[in-house]
Amino acid sequence: MARYTLPDGRVLDIDLEQLSSEDKVNLQNWLAETYPDNFDRYIEKDIQGYTAELFKGIPRGGLQTLASSAEGIVNLFDAGNDSEIGNSLRAFQQSLNENKYIGIGEGYEDAKLDNFELQITDGRITGVTVVNPIAYRDFPNMKVQSETGYGARLRPIMSRTRPQGKVLQIVDCVGVVYSSEEVN
User: Fold this and answer.
1) Is 46 exposed, middle or buried (0-12, 13-18, 19+ CB in 10 A)?
2) d(CA 132, CA 59)
3) For helices 84-98 and 47-76, what crossing angle results, to 10°?
């Protein structure tokens, strides 16, 4: 029996093993209609959709590469990486993913959480541990899709500062440094 706490505080106790695939889809769609800010509708993926995404991804990737290259050049001359031009180029790259013609189709977004470990308590995500801290420019697209649930949107708390590595060793050098001529 799985227990799910909904955004309005209601609690659902569901035996997922007793639900058919159709019932799970219906539940997902009901959640998406009732809580549109928290759940997505179930979308059936097929070979035609994957093929369309492949052909849309080619121009989108090319344009994003050009915009990213231009952003890199702009950031060479911008110490804080927050200039108007740099921000515009980042917004353009994001808009390509949302574009009506070449944007990522609904249901075909990247659903992997390879770099994160989820802590789940009573069917709720109570914490996330970043396995390999890396810098993200924008919010990573994080959605949960598993045997026991899918469609939840995760909103991370982020910082614009780069993650710092672990301190491996502290060396305290106190004293006079001699040149090789003084030692001999």
Assistant:
1) exposed
2) 30
3) 180
Task: Write the pLDDT tens digit of every residue in 112-160.
Answer: 455 667 777 766 677 777 666 666 666 666 666 565 666 666 666 666 6
Q: Tell me which H or E stretch contains 82.
A: none
C-alpha span between 85 and 57 (Å, rounded): 25
Angle value at C-alpha 135, between 132 and 139, nearest 5 degrees:
105
53: tokens are 């995404």
What's the mean pLDDT when you consider all of the chain? Answer: 76
Q: What is the pLDDT of residue 63?
A: 93
- What residues in the chain have per-residue pLDDT under 70? 109-116, 122-124, 130-184
Give the CA count within 13 Å in the CB-facing half-sphere of 117. 5
pTM above the 0.85 mark?
no
Residues 3 and 118 sit within 8 Å (Cβ to Cβ)? no
Q: Where are the domains of the chain?
A: 44-105
How many angstroms separate the CA atoms of 154 and 69, rounded? 29
How many Cβ atoms are within 10 Å of 68's Cβ, its own excluded?
14
